[in-house]
Write a structure and sequence with these properties.
With about 120 residues, the protein is an alpha+beta fold. The protein has a single domain, classed as RelE-like (YaeB-like fold, 2-Layer Sandwich). It contains 3 helices and 5 strands. Strands 1-5-4-3-2 form a 5-stranded mixed β-sheet.
Length: about 120
């Protein structure tokens, strides 16, 4: 980083103050959760320079952090925000070759809610 500021990781919080991504991570087995934590740190360090297979661009501002276990494929959707913030929006088990529309819609809904909340509700 040229100005020395570190990137930070942030988790979307819903209207109840809960984080769906933290809940998703907590639902995973210990090994997969540990691998995701490692991948998240790699993303924090590499940030906008991260490439496949660690991450993949989904379109617009959305990206996915990719992880696999022996039996499942998992994704966490995120975006880059001001002041070097990486905001995790949505985690899910991927069961089809393409990212399901419903998963993307959830991520976009949270993306817009987060952006509105950062403007003070306006």
């Amino acid at each position: 980083m040229q100005d020395g500021r570190e990137w930070t990781l942030e988790f979307f919080g819903d209207e109840r103050g809960e984080s769906p991504v933290v809940e998703f991570l907590d639902s995973l087995d210990d090994r997969t959760r540990a691998r995701f934590r490692w991948s998240m740190e790699q993303l924090r360090v590499r940030n906008v320079q991260a490439r496949e297979p660690l991450v993949r661009h989904l379109g617009g501002d959305l990206w996915e952090l990719r992880e696999e276990s022996r039996t499942n494929i998992y994704r966490i959707v995120y975006f880059f925000f001001v002041e070097r913030r990486i905001v995790f929006l949505h985690g899910f088990a991927k069961k089809t070759p393409r990212t399901p529309r419903g998963e993307l819609e959830t991520a976009w809904r949270r993306y817009h809610a987060f952006r509105v909340s950062q403007r003070g509700g306006g």
